Amino acid sequence: MADPVELATERLVLSAPTEADIDAIYAACQDPDIQRFTTVPAPYQRTDAEAFVHLVAAWWATGDECTWAIRTQGALVGMIALHGVRDGAAEIGYWVAAPARGRGYLTEAAHAVLDFAFGPMRLQRVEWRAVTDNPASMRIAQKLGFRYEGMLRLGLGRIGPGNERRDGHIAGLLAADARTPQPWPI
Fold first, then answer.
1. How many domains does the chain have?
2. Half-sphere exposure of 33 (CA within 13 A, CB side)
3. CATH number of residue 14's parent domain
4. Continuous segment of H or E residues that includes residue 56
5. Residue 2, pLDDT above cutoff 90
6. For FRET with 84, which of 12, 61, 64, 128 sits at 20 to 30 Å CA-CA?
7. 88-115 b/e with 16+ CB inside 10 Å = b?
8. What is the DSSP letter of 1?
9. How much is the pLDDT for 1?
């Protein structure tokens, strides 16, 4: 991929995080839910935010990962990424800062990222995974049209303050799938 790609929606701009975002990333990642449900370090230090911004640039350069800061009116409200890009597939991951939750920003950002994944990136599959006790992430994936594929026993690692392995759900979305809300058996 080489250079970061900027995406835009009606209310949002998605662009690579920069050094100017370090304080906002650090502040958002103090949220216990972000630390509990994602792979961010816990406790989260300012140096973690600094390292993350530099890693994002390297990931874009190699094409291994595409990470965007989600911004509205110039303010960073979250992150969304396509991880492990290879062989026509990737995994979507995201978080939203607590004050910005419940406004539909993540769903809007994810639609743009999926359009990019199945359009210019020409991916065939995007996977979603989340720990079993994260219903908010599940609701987003359902809205986006992901098909539930199962539960992975201790299938997710480096999650939460103890960096422990946790049970997780997995769902997939194919390029040919209709991106309409899906019923899940859970």
1. 1
2. 13
3. 3.40.630.30
4. helix 46-62
5. no
6. 12
7. ebbbbbbbbbeebbeeebbebbbbbbbe
8. -
9. 58
